[in-house]
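Standup notes
- DV: blocked on the single-chain target, sequence here:
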Amino acid sequence: MLNHRSSTIRILLVDDHPILRTGLLNLLERQSDLVVVGQASSGEEALQLVADSRPDVCLLDLSLPGIDGLETLQRMLRLKRTLQVIMLTSSDSAEVANLAMRYGASGFLSKNVEHRLLIKAIREVYAGHTGIMQGVAVETKPAGNTLLTPREMEVLRLMRRGLSNAQIGHAMAIAERTVKGHVTFILEKLGAADRAGAVARGFDLGLLKAGLTGG
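- DV (later): unblocked, structure below
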């Protein structure tokens, strides 16, 4: 049930590959309840279109020139809190998917997902459902009441060594933007204002041990 919203779903496409956008446009506009109200090739263009075209759902590429998909996602939701955003990506990383969902995405789909599942996901997020993932690995939650996830603990240990986001990304073989997301959530969970404060809190809480560079 779509409560009191219009039966026509207004969609914004954001991807820097024009061929992919054209393919999505042709697919979506064959559906009687879907209409594409704007297309953008960058995060900056997308933010302008959110204000101008008033979309209900945005299909947002994770990898964009300029500001990336995760940063674009956060800025979009500050502009329009009711916007439902589905991240599209070539990655099947559960880690990145979970970051996107924590930043406020309603769904996270592989670009290789079947067309029927993409259409279904659009209708579901418009109806208010969230946490929709297709084509990505499932990440299990850590057992017990662990304050930080295992990956966040690994980032915290590397922060303790004074490594930058880029250096942490290299050490962990993950993208710098993923590291940035982990750092943001570490600071939030530990109630720290900066990286040094997070490390200090790590010691206070017993997450880090003095004299052990590995944790």
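- Follow-up: The radius of gyration is 19 Å.
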